[in-house]
Amino acid sequence: MTLIKSISGIRGTIGGNPGEALTPIDIVKFTYAYCDQLRVRRPKAAGERYKVVVGKDARLSGAMVENLVCGTLIACGVDVVKCGFASTPTTEMAVTFSNADGGIILTASHNPRQWNALKLLNEKGEFLNAAEGQAILDAAEKGDFNFAEVDQLGTIVEHDFTDEHLDAVLALPAVDAEAIRKAGFKVVLDAINSVGGVIMPKLLERLGVECICLNCDPTGDFAHNPEPLPKNLVDLSTTVVKEGADFGISVDPDVDRLAFIMENGEPFVEEYTLVSVADYLLERAEAEGVKNLATVSNLSSTRALRDVTENHGGTYYAAAVGEVNVTTKMHEVNAIIGGEGNGGVIYPSIHTGRDAMVGVALFLSNLAHKGMKVSELKKTYPQYAIAKNRIDLSDSAMIDKILCEMKNVYANENINDIDGVKINFEAKKQWVHLRKSNTEPIIRIYSEAQTEEEAVKLGEDVIAIAKKIIGE
Q1: What domains does the chain contain, in order, with CATH numbers?
Q2: Residues 87, 109, 237, 297: which is the catalytic one?
Q3: pLDDT of residue 47
Q4: Is 396 a catalytic residue?
């Protein structure tokens, strides 16, 4: 059993002992803490009501967690707008649609079926910052409960925001619905038996795209490991080729991450979801004479976004890992597009959160304009490969020693230490990022180069140096 408490929320496996897994007691405790800090974060006059949106993905524990969260909110005197089955971006947008004070998303994202989580939003439908998240953790640890009296109990209303979300996507000037309809696309969708099977077919239908559905019944009984990695998408790849589809679409259970399969059954590569969408938007903005062409991704994402941005005369910015860090940097530099290499597309023209519906609509628009196969489109982008490794340490004190020494070893290179240590080898267009885990005594090591072999070797070289530092 596992319970992970972080500044972005609480996540864990269902069942077991309180404090060791995501149990009803933990759910109530952290929901109460969220309400407690809501009053600190957004003070109101006596008698004014607070309103919080609650949405869930389709995982098996969703109804149980939803009942506990909504019941606790009501017991705290907070009014609830219950979205039911809703993607993470739908719930985020529902906060602003309903003029709420915040939101709670019930999803463990790409984690397997035994997991669930409470992801916490502010009044803008964005994730809380580090200080706000820590305040909730502190309040939960304190455990001082004081619930509302009977006349001050909250109320609950139910509202499905799916259509409002899709209306907003289709209203984006960059989404060329007419060109998409004329192109007559045929796609295969794998929605992992979660809420992607509710919202994504509706989007594709409204865009005139023929959709062949795999695992689109929102039962929560995931057909395979829900992380949209190639090894988990064999059925999708096979069906794309068998059906002669233009491409395949894979989404995770809460539909904020997106991966494509090319018409030949091969992965488009998750890292390139953001790259392709960014290239399309940068090209449009450059043609319109927009001067500030800024993009953002996290430190562990592909250099291809930087290359594409600079090819259009723009400026690329790197943020620490974590969606809230990316969105904070995007606000700071007024970015046109941003996101993460895990298939997370953040387009601030609609809202500042990862959104697979936006990603699909923009990708289709790009493909319709380019008039080429997806495999041909992929070849137009800078080609890189990422290798992922880790170092397991019995002594967590060694982590900081390794990170510090790495900066000395590579002092002549371009180093970024806002989140671990990232070493950029500019001449070779390579990088390696060492970052410690928040939950385990390990260092994650991501390395990128123009070939897989070079990326693997770079990672192995750094691991060898790390072992020397700790005397292995």
Answers
A1: 3-160 (3.40.120.10), 165-261 (3.40.120.10), 271-379 (3.40.120.10), 385-469 (3.30.310.50)
A2: 109
A3: 85
A4: no
